[in-house]
Amino acid sequence: MTPPITDMRLLGQLFRHPEGDYAKEVGDFIFASNSAMINCTIDCLALQPHQKVLEIGFGNGKHLPYLFNKECSLQYVGVETSAAMIAEATEYNNALFSQQKVHFLEVVADKLPNFDYSFDVCFSVNTLYFLENPLYYYKKIHTLLSSQGKVVIGFIDKSTGEKAPFAREGFQFYTAEEVAEILKAAGFEHITKLPFEETLISAKGKNIQRKYWVVIGTC
């Protein structure tokens, strides 16, 4: 099931930054089509009690219960460019928000704020494609992590992503090797590349094989 949008350029823009009348529907579609990939990335975090976790691009935040089921004592901060998604995530995770276990921040694209503390883990899923300067961005993330911190990135393989009609403008896809080189240049070490594959159902009912990666780097 896809949002009722036939303009592929508009659909690509909304995937990058959900807003306006379609924001909620696009946010729900992004979560539904990527939930297995998001959960897989979370599984790779190897979370420990009381860790501080930073997420880049949390969308409507419907995966956060899964995250906190892994470790309930986390301190979570999520940054997002879409005010509509922040509103959705706040409403959906009202209990976590009220308990001050989660904090959501609106940011300008490719800009990360400074914090008074370091994070133990930073993760993101399907946000890499939209970064204008990924090396600069991950250098910044490196400065936000503790000395034993790690970054975990979930993303669709270049060979798969480039076939998507909505991704012909505004998306930059990468191979696992390219992402590993970016992280290495940003100062990360002990880089691990984990391959995964899943089957999705297209709007026409056809099975689509999607290859994706989870790449992990440590400080």
TrEMBL record:
GO BP annotation list: methylation
UniProt xrefs under Pfam families: Methyltransf_11
GO molecular function: methyltransferase activity
Alphabetically ordered keywords of this record: Methyltransferase, Transferase
Keyword Transferase: yes
Every Methyltransferase type domain range: 54-153
UniProt entry tagged with the keyword Membrane: no
Name of the protein: Class I SAM-dependent methyltransferase
Involved pathway(s): Phospholipid metabolism; Lipid metabolism
InterPro entries recorded: Methyltransf_11 (IPR013216), SAM-dependent_MTases_sf (IPR029063)
Organism the protein comes from: Capnocytophaga periodontitidis
